[in-house]
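Progress note, sequence design subtask.
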């Protein structure tokens, strides 16, 4: 299942690797929502999905609450504004207009699907500033929207930073973190994601792991990340990268999946563990 959004770092392609390390649990907590590929490709009883970008979380919430109304609006935008001038008109309305939450959500998806390479980027004033993408037929993801709306009934969406989100963990929660990668584009929101954030996030995840939570995180395969996650088991993979790659250079990059050592599990795939009583988790 592809995702609603084009998104740098979309996890759809690496899910076969990632799912090996996501254990069963009553709830998956994701502090970095992104495209929600992980939510869509897993089957946890419930989800806590967070992101610091209010436009992203608003769109997900509106689709959850009124998928038919959202589809009606996005179809109208595609029909009426499918030109370069229409794109910039939509971008101006999105940035400065007095839009309802539903209108704002539909505009966000329209911009994502019509802008250059699906980038999500804001200037210091908080305005979406990605130029027009000049696509002949931008894809309208109706089936993906409907599938998301169904899955979203299990999810709680919150606009919050990673620290506030990780402060809401409950016993048994599984944590998956997919922050902006070390050394790559981090301008998904005006706040950005600095090297200090990498240190802070890793420290919190290490503490949460020591408290007994099962923690999994993705990041670049760099010396910094190797050092920050030295208390985790690091699994290296090669992933396709479509954004931030110069012409003529390789479109793949080395990544790591960091898995906490605090817990062990029996090897039962979470997708098969419908009866969670048969899935044994204990301290290593």
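Output:
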């Amino acid at each position: 299942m592809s995702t609603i959004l084009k998104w740098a770092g979309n996890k759809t392609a690496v899910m076969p690797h990632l799912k090996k390390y996501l254990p069963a649990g009553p709830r998956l907590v994701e502090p970095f929502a992104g495209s929600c590929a992980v939510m869509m490709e897993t089957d946890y009883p419930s989800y806590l999905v967070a992101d610091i970008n209010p436009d992203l979380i608003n769109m997900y919430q509106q689709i959850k609450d009124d998928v038919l109304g959202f589809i009606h609006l996005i179809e109208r935008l595609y029909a009426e504004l499918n030109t370069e001038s229409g794109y910039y008109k939509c971008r101006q309305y999105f940035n400065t207009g007095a839009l309802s939450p539903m209108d704002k959500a539909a505009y966000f998806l329209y911009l994502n699907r019509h802008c250059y390479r699906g980038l999500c980027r804001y200037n210091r004033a908080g305005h979406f500033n990605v130029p027009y993408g000049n696509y002949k037929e931008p894809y309208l993801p109706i089936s993906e929207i409907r599938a998301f709306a169904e899955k979203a009934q299990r999810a709680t969406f919150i606009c919050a930073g990673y620290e506030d989100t990780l402060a809401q963990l409950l016993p048994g929660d599984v944590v998956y973190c997919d922050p902006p990668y070390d050394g790559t584009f981090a301008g998904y929101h005006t706040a950005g994601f600095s090297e200090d954030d990498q240190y802070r996030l890793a420290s919190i995840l290490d503490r949460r792991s020591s408290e007994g939570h099962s923690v999994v995180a993705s990041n670049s395969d760099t010396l910094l990340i190797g050092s920050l996650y030295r208390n985790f088991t690091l699994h290296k993979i090669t992933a396709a990268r479509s954004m931030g790659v110069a012409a003529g250079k390789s479109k793949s990059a080395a990544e790591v999946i960091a898995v906490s050592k605090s817990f062990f599990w029996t090897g039962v795939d979470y997708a098969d563990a419908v009866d969670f009583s048969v899935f044994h988790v204990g301290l290593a």
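The longest strand covers residues 232-240. Work on this subtask will continue into the next period as scheduled.
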